[in-house]
From TrEMBL:
<dbReference type="GO" id="GO:0015408">
    <property type="term" value="F:ABC-type ferric iron transporter activity"/>
</dbReference>
<feature type="domain" description="ABC transporter">
    <location>
        <begin position="3"/>
        <end position="233"/>
    </location>
</feature>
<dbReference type="InterPro" id="IPR017871">
    <property type="entry name" value="ABC_transporter-like_CS"/>
</dbReference>
<dbReference type="InterPro" id="IPR027417">
    <property type="entry name" value="P-loop_NTPase"/>
</dbReference>
<dbReference type="InterPro" id="IPR008995">
    <property type="entry name" value="Mo/tungstate-bd_C_term_dom"/>
</dbReference>
<dbReference type="GO" id="GO:0016887">
    <property type="term" value="F:ATP hydrolysis activity"/>
</dbReference>
<dbReference type="Pfam" id="PF00005">
    <property type="entry name" value="ABC_tran"/>
</dbReference>
<keyword id="KW-0547">Nucleotide-binding</keyword>
<dbReference type="InterPro" id="IPR013611">
    <property type="entry name" value="Transp-assoc_OB_typ2"/>
</dbReference>
<keyword id="KW-1003">Cell membrane</keyword>
<dbReference type="GO" id="GO:0005524">
    <property type="term" value="F:ATP binding"/>
</dbReference>
<keyword id="KW-0813">Transport</keyword>
<dbReference type="Pfam" id="PF08402">
    <property type="entry name" value="TOBE_2"/>
</dbReference>
<dbReference type="InterPro" id="IPR003439">
    <property type="entry name" value="ABC_transporter-like_ATP-bd"/>
</dbReference>
<dbReference type="InterPro" id="IPR047641">
    <property type="entry name" value="ABC_transpr_MalK/UgpC-like"/>
</dbReference>
<protein>
    <submittedName>
        <fullName>ABC transporter ATP-binding protein</fullName>
    </submittedName>
</protein>
<keyword id="KW-0472">Membrane</keyword>
Length: 345
């Protein structure tokens, strides 16, 4: 099912939670809605679900306008943050429940529920109550229940936020596996960029109700179209250097100039930590701090107000207090206007 958001907005009395969102989610893809707290992720998902009616714009499923349809009429499955399992029912009864509500015959409902339980690998737990399950198992039950009526769209609202780090990783791989097995168009809300970049075909990155970039994960990282995207994606964060374009020439802090057509203006020059490297010339700063993070060594140089982070090569060693020179290749430099818009060279 292709999902089209046509210029949708959602205004609550004096807040614009979502502002003129235009995006097409391709059939069979897993798309994450990513962004900081309060940016409008859940509101967007609730509009897709039919829980909120947009104050403006239209939502189309396979070209058909569903903007005014109730959640029941949309053919969607939904999993919420807290799973919302029925505590007095067994796993099997929980999964069968949506079928029971739609008056599916009991034998048929049971067979379908068991098939779903197998898909999410909890068919050995059918007689347990939710309180006797781990967080990850409860999550699987919630997914099986959302899928049991064979919806064409699956909506997930921060489904992993109650799980510990290790389980989150397992469950996100599971969600991807299940999604691919069913080829079901899936929209996944998260504020965790690693999660979003890890499992999505496309990511819809929002800020303050606006769409910032809809793209494949690698492009969000390598080709951010706005300074917000460059800063939000990547950990440790991207580095910034002040620069100025004068008569079509940008002097970089690395000792070389870049020429291109652009009006005179101050700019931000951005370079990711893995794209800065030690050299004999270029920008020089004092080493403040050195950190081993697993296989990587991160050096923090500069001052507290103007920190620069770079990864060192295995054989490189620097000492705190030492002054080092760093360089970046022109291909790894991204340039932004003061307004945040990218300047393409
Ligand atoms: P989080 O990651 O914290 O869950 P979010 O990105 O999902 O945030 P939303 O819940 O969509 O953000 O909220 C977007 C904005 O709309 C926020 O400013 C929020 O306060 C506001 N908002 C959300 N729901 C309502 C509501 N029912 N009434 C009024 N304002 C609301």
């Amino acid at each position: 099912m292709t999902i089209t958001l046509q210029n949708i907005s959602m205004k609550f009395s004096n807040t614009t939670a979502v502002n003129q969102l235009n995006v097409t989610i391709p059939k069979g893809e897993l798309v994450s809605i990513l962004g900081p707290s309060g940016c409008g992720k859940s509101t967007t998902l609730y509009m897709l679900a039919g829980l909120y009616e947009p104050t403006d714009g239209a939502i189309l499923f396979n070209g058909k306008d569903v903007t005014k349809l109730t959640p029941e009429k949309r053919g969607i499955g939904m999993v919420f943050q807290n799973y919302a399992l029925y505590p007095h029912m067994t796993v099997l009864q929980n999964i069968m429940f949506p079928l029971k509500m739609h008056k599916v015959k009991k034998t048929e409902a049971k067979a379908k529920a068991i098939e779903m339980a197998k898909l999410v690998e909890i068919d050995h737990l059918l007689d347990r109550k939710p309180s006797m399950l781990s967080g990850g198992q409860q999550q699987r039950v919630a997914i099986a229940r959302a899928l049991v009526r064979e919806p064409e769209i699956l909506l997930l609202d921060e489904p992993l936020s109650n799980l510990d780090a290790r389980l989150r990783l397992t469950m996100r791989e599971e969600i991807r596996r299940i999604q691919q097995a069913l080829k079901i168009t899936t929209v996944f809300v998260t504020h965790d960029q690693e999660e979003a970049l890890g499992i999505s075909d496309h990511v819809l990155l929002m800020n303050q109700g606006e769409l910032m970039q809809f793209d494949v994960p690698q492009n969000l990282y390598d080709e951010p179209n706005h300074q917000f995207v460059a800063s939000f994606i990547g950990s440790p964060p991207i580095n910034y250097f002040e620069g100025e374009i004068v008569s079509g020439v940008l002097k970089t802090p690395f000792g070389y100039d870049i020429s291109f057509e652009a009006p005179d203006q101050p700019v931000q020059i951005a370079v990711r930590p893995e794209n800065l490297y030690l050299s004999k010339s270029g920008l020089h700063r004092e080493v403040q701090h050195v950190e081993r993070i697993g296989k990587d060594t991160l050096a923090v140089i500069g001052t507290d107000e103007d920190k620069i982070r770079l990864f060192l090569q295995k054989e490189e060693h620097v000492e705190v207090g030492q002054v080092i020179h760093v360089q970046a290749n022109q291909a790894d430099i991204r340039i932004f206007q003061k307004s945040g818009e990218r300047i393409y060279v």
